[in-house]
Amino acid sequence: MRKFIKVFAVFSLLTTFGFAQEFRGLDKSPLDRVYLPDHFAHDIKFAPERNLPEFPVLKIDYSRPQKNGRQVFGGIVKYNEIWRLGANEATEIKVYKDVKIDGKLLKKGTYSMYAIPTEEHWTIIFNTALDHWGHYSYDKNNDVLRVDAHVLKNQQPVEEFSIQFDDLEEGVGVMYIAWDMDRVELPISY
């Protein structure tokens, strides 16, 4: 009986420490996910009238930093330097079937996305190295596609870095990437 009490006491002590674990608060740059077709994960179940395919064309996981009164481009995001296209881990895109981005082929697969912004255009980069924090491990030898997009100006500032899609017609969409007053648009066909 004494042995049982000792074992129970040790078990109780260990489980108490285990349940006393503190959890981190919310990330300052929360993770988000977008799909092409837009709103795919929701609408596949709740909007059958859209007649969506079994799988999306692509999905993007990215973190959404906030402007918070800072100068974004030319400030916290340096011109002519590699940028992780968001915050935290490098943005990742899963392509479920071959697509053309700005007329250039991107094969089915999963890629990290980076950008090199300038005042006039951004170079958007698709790279095979995955699961990297930021752009610190970026290696251009792993690039599979680069496309240039002209910078457009938003009518209102975009506080949270954002990526979204617009379904233009069957087999054609546009990826919008925006933050603060800057926006780029990439045509996608599939």
Give your account of this protein's structure:
- With 190 residues, this protein is mainly beta.
- It is built from 2 helices and 10 strands, in the order αβαβββββββββ.
- The protein has helices at 2-19, 40-46; strands at 31-36, 58-63, 91-95, 99-101, 104-106, 109-117, 121-127, 143-150, 152-169, 172-189.
- The protein has a 6-stranded antiparallel beta sheet, with no helix packed on it.
- It is globular, with a radius of gyration of 22 Å.
- It starts with a helix and ends with a strand.
- The model has no long low-confidence stretch (mean pLDDT 89).
Number of strands: 10
Question: Tally the helices: what do you get?
Answer: 2
Radius of gyration, taken over Cα atoms and rounded to an integer in Å: 22 Å
Oligomer: single chain
| Percent of residues in helices | 10-25%
End-to-end separation in angstroms reads: 70 Å
Strand order of the largest sheet: 1-2-3-6-7-8
- The class by helix and strand makeup works out as mainly beta
Written as H for each helix and E for each strand, in order along the chain, the element string is HEHEEEEEEEEE
Give the amount of beta strand, in percent: 35-45%
Low-confidence stretches: none
Summarize model confidence as the mean pLDDT: 89
Shape: globular
Task: Provide the fold topology.
Blueprint (H helix, E strand, L loop, with lengths): L1 H18 L11 E6 L3 H7 L11 E6 L27 E5 L3 E3 L2 E3 L2 E9 L3 E7 L15 E8 L1 E18 L2 E18 L1
Antiparallel strand pairs: 1-2, 2-3, 3-6, 4-5, 4-10, 6-7, 7-8, 9-10
